[in-house]
Predict the structure of Gibberellin-regulated protein.
Amino acid sequence: MASTRTTTLVLFIICLIFIQELEIHGLEIHGENQDMAAAHQHIDCGGKCGHRCSKAGRPKICMRACKTCCQRCNCVPPGTAGNQNACPCYASLTTHGGKLKCP
């Protein structure tokens, strides 16, 4: 009987500690680290790639490659060409042939 009470008490204390840890981490996300939380939000790849590929000679191929890169990197460089230094991940993806994958 005493061992059951002890086990219940230990589990209760562990649950309280766990709940407190969740609250602390929740406050960090909603408080000081809002920039990090915003960085983890997914962007509108269709809209960003639509603009990026708007002047491409083959827009369907451009869109397919851009959306793949966007989904992997969660970033699309500004403008219709260039500016790849704005998204290092986007600029580093290559095809099996070693060519740059992202438009």
Q: What stands out?
A: The CA atoms of residues 53 and 60 lie 8 Å apart. Residues 27-38 have pLDDT under 50 and may be disordered. Residues 45-92 form one domain. Residues 2-30 form the longest helix (29 residues).
